[in-house]
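Late entry, evening session. Most of the bench is empty. Finally got around to the prediction I had been postponing all week. Sequence below, unchanged from the version circulated by S.P.
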Amino acid sequence: MSVTTRLTARDGTLLLIDIQERLLPHIDGHAELVQNACLLLDAAQALELPVLATEQYPRGLGPTVAPIAQRVPHRAEKSSFSCCGVPELLEQLHGRSVRHVTLAGIEAHVCVAQTALDLLAQGFVVQVAADAVGSRHPIDWQFALRRLERAGAVVSTCEAILFEWTESSDHPAFKTISRLVKQRTATTGSPPSSPLPPSPPR
């Protein structure tokens, strides 16, 4: 699948990475990150898109935060930074004939980045929700997304992802998706302009 191919809900999966209680408060923009991750989760449910989630060393970093945990009762535990170090998760991706994976979670420059690079190496198209991944320091977030985009990942935003998943206003879930987007906008206001620095020419 080319990165120019639209990434619809028909052959994708959403992967939530390590949004855990003891790490989250240290993440820049953590409240918005959780809100946007929940937006993706609610849309995935409406569109019947499979959802996977992980926890990094929960005995040390605590469990997944409640808003996410309530929506995803099963989270695979891991010690490797990359989610691809979890055999159960890889089996589910390959078993469902998934073609593209959308990533959200923390930290952008560690577990999210290493997962994205490993998935790309295994032939998956990877999409990263820029407003649903985070790091403690903005510079780490910025350069993680720059690196992943140059490596071949699609860097997008939650709202763009939702409408691309949905494809058409004729979709049975379109009204639900539209309502979720409006609710998010009413709560947070207009999203900020892109904080990412321009990528240098190749």
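Two things to note before I forget:
Residues 3 and 154 are 7 Å apart (CA to CA).
Helices lie at 30-46, 58-61, 66-69, 87-95, 108-121, 138-151, 158-166, 174-188.
Will write this up properly tomorrow.
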